[in-house]
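Reviewers of the previous submission asked for a worked example of the structure-prediction workflow described in the proposal, so we include one complete record here. The input consisted solely of the amino acid sequence. No template or homolog information was supplied to the procedure at any stage.
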Amino acid sequence: MFRQGREIARAARRHGALLAMGTATMYPEGLFMAYGMVFAVTTPKGQELTLPVLSAQLGVSSATRVAPKDRVIASVNLPHVGTVARVTGTEVTRLTGDIDVKLLTMHTMMPVPGTSEDFLVVTLASPNLPLKNEAYDLFDAITSTFRFVADDGSQVATAPGDGGEAD
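From that input alone, the workflow returned the following structure tokens.
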């Protein structure tokens, strides 16, 4: 488990993650594992980060170029950010050099206030497939705490009417 954790952290750095986190917690019912990463993404000039564009790119296997059958692309409203795009589904991912694993995944794209081309992508994943509903509820709760904060500690205003305006 520690070897896999190190490999995940290395992969996060290689792929440009701003933040990587994880948990492996033993409960009486068994082991729960999950990890998350945050990436900064800038949309190339002349392109938009729309749901159809995301649909064509996120969650698609690099080996087969096939999207997961259970993939869902939707917009959700986060309390302190506003409307964001979200992609969920079960993906097969290379965990280490020789191990592939099926993961429940949730990718949430959060527009950075004051720009139309910059986004933070929060990716959360868990191999606990039988806990799909619980994992997605946890991932939604985590992303729902997200907010943009200025250097002085005040909350940065986001889109009007989304609950994210600074006081």
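Helices lie at 2-14, 51-57, 132-144. We consider this example representative of the routine output the project will generate in years two and three.
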